[in-house]
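As agreed, record copied across for absentees:
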Amino acid sequence: MAVAIRNVRESDLDAVLALNNAAGPAILPLEGARLRRFHQIADYFRVAEVDGRLAGFLIALRESADYGSPNFRWFRDRYGQFVYIDRIVVASAYRGHGIGRVLYCDVQSYAEVRVPTLCCEVFLEPRDDVAVLFHGTYGFHEVGQQTMPEVGRRVSLLAKDLPSFAFVRDTYLLHGGLPDLPWLAERKHLLTDPRLRVAGGS
């Protein structure tokens, strides 16, 4: 099974919407307009393909995104810099094959050269033990709980420290940016946050 991760294309959005809305109660449904809004504002929006077929997707946003989710706002009120995973969906035919872990590894590699923390939430009502176990084994820990006002469901708010960010920041970001290396090529173009620059630096 060949898995490829790539940036979402506008032509993918109808298939992404159908996949999201077939995911079940663990994923809130979307309307087309909101998905198109994600396409405009998400800092990370990538899909997984298996042999050319859409197998899953993940949407994540930086703390500066113009986004009104109460869970996103909870993190923005408490953390200076973070990447927030809004949703991950894997098609039912591909569950249990590691697609979710591949997407999480990819979003972590995106996040760890930008921010110190990766955030998300999982539903506690109804409790999704598979999601709780997945995030626990991947290094997330609970940092709070709240009830989402629009749906009345309680969530566990999770965070994962990205210890490699301090090395990246101190070694590269504060001294002219990341080196010109092939494995960093896709990650360099968004590293323009002025908060990562030292006074008088580039």
Summary: Confidence is low (pLDDT under 50) at residues 189-202. The domain at 3-166 is CATH 3.40.630.30 (Aminopeptidase).
